[in-house]
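User: Can you help me understand a structure? I only have the sequence.
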Amino acid sequence: MECKQPPNPRETAWEALSAHQIAVADLHMRYLFKVDPQRANRFSLRLDDFLVDYSKHRVTQETITLLMALADAVGMEQRINEMFSGVAVNKTENRAVLHTALRSPRKPLLIPGIGKQVAEVHEELSRVGRLVRQLHEGQLKGSTGKVLNHVVNIGIGGSDLGPRLAVDALRSFHTNSIRVDFVANLDAQDLGLVLSHANPETTLFIVTSKSFTTLETHANAMAAREWLHGHGCTETGKHFVAVSSNLDVTGKFGIPEEQVYRIWDWVGGRYSVWSAVGLPLAIYIGMEGFMQFLDGAHRMDRHFLEAPRERNIPLILGMLDVWYNNFFRAETLAVVPYDERLRLLPGYLSQLMMESNGKGVTLDEKPLDCQSSPIVWGSVGTNAQHAFFQLLHQGNRLVPVDFLLPLRGAPESNSHHKLVANCIAQGEALMSGQENHAEPYRNFPGNRPSTTISYTDLTPANLGMLLALYEHRTFVQAQVWQIDAFDQWGVELGKQLAGEIIREMENGAPGKQHDSSTTMLIRHFLESR
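Assistant: Let's start by predicting it. Here is the structure, written out as tokens:
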């Protein structure tokens, strides 16, 4: 008698969704709204200040049921609990992933068993708080005895994108006279621009790198130290603090151990803004505001862990990403904040989602059998309407859109309702379209999906909730694709080759191992010097 393999639950759920997609592919959202007057209420979710409207998606209740069945088939609930519990879900590096512990209160704990990590986090938060207080009270002085009042964060990737976004987004919560700037790029013009309006006697550099060996960060830190020396600030240790786990290297650089703030190996760079990596934000808005930022993220953590799946915002949005990415072959996700304060959000999310889920190999080291992360891009509205909305409305690519919408505007604004109207109108136009077959160039086919995430105002707590929502949404995608969302081996080869080419340039000639194009470009540079 032939033994048959039991059906794979993921494959069964996937096949059911494939069949369903064929059945609903030609359904227009205009029809779905017409036959269901309560559609907006049934396909929207509320959490504190947030309203998440996903009714303008090409889904029926059966779609949601089948997407939840796929989530069940991949063990979503168990995977979520494992991450929160400190299981080594980063398989390739055999590491726990506990960024949620960074924003956990001491008590009550969401998950038993992480009390040690949470205690360490709060000990480090106390140290961060002391530094912030000293800066605000003018207690920290530089090499010449002048008060430090300008902070420059040197870091790249997760050591830059998160804190830079948060500081930019929360400028209205600036509570003191300390200026905060950011330097990331290896291009010396980045550092040079910041230093051109800095006073070396009053500048404090925060050098953020877990290893403290990141090429770009190390080069900029060395240049900053030389700048201080060149202006007579010889006690450079008074002008530097670090966020790192490598005390040996920070010590050799000249930063005393008591000026190094800890980051743990269970914190990934793109999930680290909640740690001492967020020091620039804490300095900028104060510790009270920073704790509100953490509390907001924790609120979303609790929701993700405890909300029933039909009301779970990160779960539903993550599964909708899978729906379009894998069943409609949509290759991108556009993020359009109608909030100038979130102008850096698309760039931040491009790292969060694409570095996390831009993978081609599964957890069991097999080639991935489906498309992984969408390309994440976007810009702030209404500017974006005059840049790429032509493609969204009339192009022949399906591009799901996230709209982010604050209900309150700047206090001095008399036209915020016009901004809100534009955002709402774009969602309606993408969904409903407008037929004009007599003039095809004026025809708007509609049926273009979008999510609108509205919030009362962009407070520290709401920003924390929003970023945590996208973190968990990214995690949901990864579980369906069965990939490791917490490594980033794809960045290594380019860095390795760059190191080799740097040595060749310093020696004055390309190596023999390169292809002809690479050799030509190296020689072209050397000849231009």
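Now, to help you interpret it: The domain at 99-285 is CATH 3.40.50.10490 (Rossmann fold). The chain has three domains: 38-73+307-487, 99-285, 492-528. Let me know which part you'd like to focus on.
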